[in-house]
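Box 3.1 A note on notation
Throughout this textbook, protein chains are presented in two layers. The first layer is the amino acid sequence; the second is a token string describing backbone geometry. Keep the layers aligned when reading.
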Amino acid sequence: MSQETRVTEKGQTTIPEELRDKHDLKPGDEVRWMDIDEGIFVIRDADVETLWN
């Protein structure tokens, strides 16, 4: 799944509701922005260790 959002003048963007619901993201949850060769990768911060192990 892929969805497009815009970056505001303040550098903010909104995670689409469908993705928030699918991944059970709640207000206050932390996400990590990772700079990779292909672009930007966003992952729930709690899942980072699972990804790399």
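The chain has two helices and two strands. The longest helix spans residues 17-22.
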